[in-house]
Structure formats: structure tokens, C-alpha cells
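Notes from the 1:1 (GR / supervisor)

We went over the backlog. Supervisor wanted to see one worked example end to end before approving the batch request, so GR pasted a single chain during the call. The sequence is below; no edits were made to it. Supervisor asked that the structure be written out right there so they could see what the output format looks like.
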Amino acid sequence: MQTVFVQVKCELGNVYSVAEKAIETVEKISEIYSTSGQYDLLIKCYLSDGDDIGHFINDKIQTLPGVKDTYTLITFKAFS
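Structure output shown during the call:
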């Protein structure tokens, strides 16, 4: 299992609609947070080990209506 965080910059006035559409339509999304700063949303995704991260981001996240830009963080180890 791969944990990936995607920061999303939305077109003005579209933060809530992007978050709602993402949580409704993208199965591998675990959580979505609104954030302050350069990006509007932080999306936490769990992908299978065989999943192609680039294709997932390109096909499922960047194509959501209202998404302007993304920045992807790939994780290695979770500490608890």
C-alpha cells in the first residue's frame, strides 16, 4: 500500500466543489483537508503497490473540474 498526499490549487471559488467532487468520485481518496497557503486542498490517497501514481494523479485528480494545479508528495514510512 502506498500513501500519497496531493496538494491541489483550485480555480477561484471552486474549493468546495472540487473537494465534494473528489470525495464522491475518486475511490482511493481517504481524506481531504482545506488548507491555507499556496494550495487550497490536501488530499490523502491510499494506492495499491502496483498502481501507477502518475497516471492516478493525471487521470483522477488533475481532471476534476476546477483543479488548477497539483503538487504530489510520495511517502515512505509512517511513524506512530
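Supervisor's comment: The chain is about 25% helix and 40% strand.
Batch request approved.
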